[in-house]
Protein 1
Amino acid sequence: MSAVPHKTASPRVGFVSLGCPKALVDSERILTQLKVEGYDIVPSYDDADVVVVNTCGFIDAAVDESLEAIGEAMAENGKVIVTGCLGKREEVIRQAHPGVLSISGPQDYTSVMRAVHAAVPQVHDPFVDLVPRRAADDIGIKLTPKHYAYLKISEGCNHRCSFCIIPSMRGDLVSRPVDEVLREAERLVRGGVRELLVISQDTSAYGVDLRYIERDWRGGSYQTRMQALCEGLAELGVWTRLHYVYPYPHVDRIIPLMAEGKLLPYLDIPFQHASPRILKLMKRPGAVERTLERIRGWRAICPELTIRSTFIVGFPGETDAEFEELLDFLDEARLDRVGAFAYSPVEGAAANALPDPVDEDVKQARLARFMERQARISAERLEAKVGSVQRCLVDAIDGELAIARSQADAPEIDGLVQIQDGAAHGLRAGDFADVRIMGSDEHDLYGEVAA
Ligand code: SF4
């Protein structure tokens, strides 16, 4: 009788992932490595031998949420490894939760794996140990649905916006060479991804640290630079959406790619303010004059361009007149999607030292006026789409409805398109459909499959 190797139970890891899409990509990398090394990922504290918490530390509310998540994992399981942005502030974590096993900062996959190995050693498994150490499906673990994926093109940031502590947590800009990014995108598309969401801290600055080094991919030569990256991604024939683009002059060069249908006509540009003096106090990159003129120029080349942005109201020193300037900008720019925050100090940020903080009630009143003004504009821009046919990507089926997104909608942050007869047409998650738009509200569109 031949001996059958005995398969030992795999060690089990629980995982809590907090924070922005960049943190999500870090989580995906760690989870992929855990799977490759034979660890099981389990959904409950009870089943886990150890719990990894990937934290966010961007604003005070995120710090609180992260500390709470660590506390819950400590109470429910007791063996906790902390990583991510808040890991850069070890003393804050140690003070609240002295018993955590290990603390590391963002993108420090090696430290996390070392801590996991120490807490729950890998089990020798004769089945797994002979298998080459790569994830079976070649694209690793994804925390997003199968049909879209975040593509992180760089880490860190060379700017020093006065309200932001990301550079002190994630360091200066480190771009990934273009061929590496394009090969990852290629693998994702082979694995079923239909929409790539390009993320970084500053997508327009991509490659500057590598002096725009040229690399070969699919027999062609590409610079490590935003425009060349977009041209390469266009070869893959899926939706490509750009996030965190700063309005440097060279952004003008990618608008024609959008007009030609090679890139989604969508720009996520965090303008943050419209007053030149406040932008200067914020130390914003690409704080150019003539922003309105440039937006008009982009729309002349690509009329279907969607612009999403974020703003901060009540920044230290913001006067009534400067706030009015911001509202006037909204009226003129007629952006499609806008998020806004009342300024709140972040521990360690340079802006905390600025004079003339705005009273909390004034900040809140300005935020309410800002949101009201933009809500009307967003609703009008959506209403203008009623009667048109929009190409949509289906995210899910809910009874009779297909829940989809148009080219103008990024997942999680923008609106949805409800396709009333989606199920009847046999649509499934990941399918594209042309949808005749029949109605709209402030956020979403409603329609039916176009004949
Ligand atoms: S561009 Fe400014 S806000 Fe964005 S990560 Fe860099 S420093 Fe922070």
Protein 2
Amino acid sequence: MSQKFDVVVIGAGPGGYVAAIKAAQLGLKTACIEKYQDKEGKLALGGTCLNVGCIPSKALLDSSWKFYEAKNGFSVHGISTSELNIDIPAMIGRKSTIVKGLTGGVASLFKANGVTTLQGHGKLLAGKKVELTAADGTVEIIEADHVILASGSRPIDIPPAPVDQKVIVDSTGALEFQQVPQRLGVIGAGVIGLELGSVWARLGAQVTVLEALEKFIPAADEAVSKEALKTFNKQGLDIKLGARVTGSKVEGEQVVVSYTDAAGEQSITFDRLIVAVGRRPVTTDLLASDSGVDLDERGFIYVDDYCTTSVPGVYAIGDVVRGLMLAHKASEEGIMVVERIKGHKAQMNYNLIPSVIYTHPEIAWVGKTEQTLKAEGVEVNVGTFPFAASGRAMAANDTGGFVKIIADAKTDRVLGVHVIGPSAAELVQQGAIAMEFGSSAEDIGMMVFSHPTLSEALHEAALAVGGGAIHIQNRKKR
Ligand SMILES: Cc1cc2nc3c(=O)[nH]c(=O)nc-3n(C[C@H](O)[C@H](O)[C@H](O)COP(=O)(O)OP(=O)(O)OC[C@H]3O[C@@H](n4cnc5c(N)ncnc54)[C@H](O)[C@@H]3O)c2cc1C
């Protein structure tokens, strides 16, 4: 007799595993299917995020930042080091230990909450049945009242630079370098390219980023992207905009990359090349031809605002559906779907999903940019506060960047918070909380902020919206 569950989740990334835990917490008999195996051939839960995404990249960003600070930022504090070395295999090993701890943590949470883990490949059949194929080829049919598809995404390959995971790598390969490449190329100036490029640049690689678009970080507010480009260039990252890669040739331990830009045909030699041009949804062998689940024109599983697919009782969440490819978006979609399965009212505020780039300075934003709002014909007031005027940032010797708050000129409601600088991700989250509750800039300005904190920059930017900042000269008089 086949196993039957209230909820079967396919994929144990941050979308799927969070949905499975929530479903079990709400009393639903739940199973989660996952096929990913770590380097030791063991089942590893947690998806891209825990295994080869958010967490390992942040582990390397933190290690490399400590090295960079020790090398370049300690002397100002009066600290000198006679010799500074970095053991790359040890750094990569630390990252792997963190990943192991977290993926094991998800397995423990499944156990504690009573989620059944099913190892293998899941495929949705018609009638909310799921075919589970184990690694040894054994096939089992599982029945479910509700199925949640959370199969995630994988890196996009481009024909001019085929990944061999030796000289030309994708984001996963770039987390495993055993030595610092002398000359590192990165195709794509998106979040992943900038973060991974930063890791290796801080450790001494000469990094060149080739970006086909003319605009740098087009999703960010223009003031932020201009500041970021200026700062990254100063840090030694060579970011070439409008550079379209046309081919590559691996020659031993090197790769010659050809590209075209405004000046015509160019070529450049690297010791390693990271291809980071985006990610595509994983739907390979996920849906039987008669499953009834539709894809959209870009290959994502088609869903409505509540992550309902074209088949009643079948949902899809995370990177495999439209919207931002972010772990927190995937998780919240998972929670929403399960709450709705239980008959609770739940919805997501897709307008308030924060975006973060964990470079230094960190870049983060929530809500709309000044350019978007202006294009929509919304009149706005803007308040900006530079970290150069923040006592806390000065104490930390980390004064680059600013906080920018955009508010509706008529209602003063905050419509966007954009930060480039220290702890940008944490500051933007405060903005997101304020925006979720419909705060005005004046509301934030009237709150008491601890002194000295970086958060005071958010306070001052809110005050600056109405021309009332205390610690800078206001552009606008009250
Ligand atoms: C280098 C890098 C850094 C990143 N940094 C951040 C960050 O800082 N913050 C952030 O929010 N996001 C970050 N992301 C993006 C984030 O990892 C993804 O948005 C997130 O993991 C998506 O979650 P998901 O659950 O939709 O899918 P995934 O995490 O991709 O998980 C899907 C899981 O489903 C499994 N699966 C697929 N098909 C099947 C099947 N048929 N049967 C069984 N199992 C299946 C896969 O093996 C996988 O484990 C980063 C990504 C990368 C690559």
